[in-house]
Amino acid sequence: MIASGRADEQLPVIARFEVRYRNYLAPDGAINRKLPAFASDTRLLVTLYRAMVLVRAFDLKAVALQRTGRLGTYAASLGQEAVSVGVASAMREEDVLLPSYRDNAALIWRGVKLEDILLFWGGDERGNRFSGPVQDFPFCIPVGSQAPQAAGVAYAFKLRKEPRVAVCLFGDGATSKGDVWEAMNFAGVHRLPVVFVVTNNQWAISVPLRLQTASETLAQKAIAAGFIGEQVDGNDVVAMHAAAEAAIDAARNGQGPHFIEAVTYRLGDHTTADDAARYRPTEEVQARWKEEPIARLRSFLAGQNVWSKTEEERLAAECQQRIDAAVERYLAVEPRAPETMFDHLYAKLPKAYAAQRRELEGGS
């Protein structure tokens, strides 16, 4: 019998890895470490703040519309607005966004009209023919399936030698899907210009992170795929913008993929079809409100004497006016004719479907 134990302890270490953490602003708006250069541009920071306030107000209205039967199931981003805003604000127009179903803020930043988003969540696919960059992908409902698509987009960029980047956002639950791992593995092997951003909001519907993975971080999952994984304070929009900007620039310059784990917290329900109080203690949620991103940046801006109560009130009124106008336009859209449900199923409709279409049109 060969004894192991002590002998195994002498085995050489052949590799070591690390995951770095990025944060600049404390929950009270205080500065934790030296800010990145762009943070001296207070106009940019105010723009980021305005974008987060708008999407929070928009989410509130969308939930109200759903509760009154004028919108379908809706996924709000309460508490994690800094992730989508921070990432989208670091992208160029020609880059490609592949969002999850909770990334309304990113679409809005990229120029998508509020009424287009409402149209989609109202069950009308015309909402996916939105007003943002034509190359951006629509909302992705199947969890994690946008990751292989992002790898494919990035592969096309590399083949064409185009200095463009695919930016893919998904939730922590998606990291438990094979789609995400396969996309990351492919991206790492081919050193593709793609940035994967996981919004770690601690909950995949009712499943907590500890039941999804035994990994200390989600960022370390990138190491196995051969590229950098970074953990970022997802409630700090300055940190999110800085991390996304660095990752996107590196990918654009031929340095391969990057993985960002944005650590935040979902303050609301998973969707309007969910009741998070059934699986999440109220005390936990209340404690997390102290870390949320909007109050954090507002405190910082106020401390820099570039934001006041008057400006806050003016912004709230502007957001409400913009949202109310979008809701009016959404509600004024005429419903599609029922037979149009067949229009994009096949290049040529099979006989059975063609007959059904004629029946809906009132024919025989």
From the structure above, extract its key features.
oxidoreductase; 364 residues; single chain; Rossmann fold
Structural write-up:
The protein is an alpha/beta fold. It has two domains: 306 residues, Thiamin diphosphate (ThDP)-binding fold, Pyr/PP domains (Rossmann fold, 3-Layer(aba) Sandwich); 27 residues, no CATH class. It has 13 helices and eight strands. The strands form two sheets. A six-stranded parallel beta sheet has the order 1-7-8-4-3-2, with helices on both faces. Strands 5-6 form a two-stranded antiparallel ribbon. A hairpin with a 2-residue loop joins strand 5 and strand 6. Helix 2 packs antiparallel against helix 11, helix 2 packs across helix 12 and helix 6 runs parallel beside helix 7. The chain is globular and about 80 Å long. The model has no long low-confidence stretch (mean pLDDT 95). GO terms for molecular function: pyruvate dehydrogenase (acetyl-transferring) activity. It catalyses: N(6)-[(R)-lipoyl]-L-lysyl-[protein] + pyruvate + H(+) = N(6)-[(R)-S(8)-acetyldihydrolipoyl]-L-lysyl-[protein] + CO2. Heterodimer of an alpha and a beta chain. Its EC number is 1.2.4.1. One of its GO terms (biological process) is branched-chain amino acid catabolic process.
